[in-house]
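To make this tangible, this section ends with a sequence with its structure tokens:
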Amino acid sequence: MTPALADLADLADCDSSDVLADMASLADCARAEGYACVTALREHGARSVEIPAPQFAILLEGEKRVRTASQSLRFVPGDIFLITRRCRIDVVNVPDARSGRYVSAIVPFCDEALTAARTLWNEPLPAAGEVLVRLPLREHRTLLRRWRQSLQDGHYSDARLALATFAMALTRQGHGSLLLPPQPSLAEQVRDRIAAEPARDWPSHEVEAALGLSGATLRRRLAADGTSLRQLLIEARLAHAMGLLYTTRLPLKSVAARVGYRSLPSFSKRFVERYGLQPADIGRA
């Protein structure tokens, strides 16, 4: 490498360190409005994790490995992990060798931000692009610093505006599926309803009434998607439980209760069957 190129590389490394240091304040979660801090002290993985909508994660400490049927990516501090549309992923989170911690901030593109971006977009959408994308944090530092500062100041409307601008910038880079209006399947609609109130019993007749379907039609259409109301209830509850385990210090019994399980052993058994790891292994000290 020539001296000039070496200098440029040093400047890029320095800039990456600066913006990563700025983003590190997200881990304090003083104003964790619209994002979640994920921490872990042990390496762990989960399979077939449902991601219901576009989101991105900023890696602060440790390493993240993600895989779908067609992609396999590795992320380190200084990377942005972008998910452009609803999907399922296998994921492994690895703590940093020096600090012993894995830390990331997960930021969903909220409905308000995506609706604003779709309204403002006035040109043909590019191709949908890949589902999973690795982006350099330094290339998007201005928008993300604006978003972070708005959160710290309590200016949540400005924070959503920054996310809308970020979504449009990413769309212009070729990630068109970010701004495609969602068209959830019946199974996804049912799962989303359950996810909004996971502790409810959700008898079939309530779901049927909410969707305007007969019991026979609901069962037939879900079977055509390879699932059932019972399976969707389990999946939605356990997905919500995973979020609680990552982002709170609630006891396992409280997490189980918040997602409709009265028995902790039953909850743990279902969790292991669904994700392949014990709930106690997530985000615990």
About this structure: Residues 10-179 form a domain with the Jelly Rolls fold (CATH 2.60.120.810). Strands lie at 36-40, 44-51, 55-61, 63-67, 72-75, 79-83, 87-94, 102-108, 132-136.
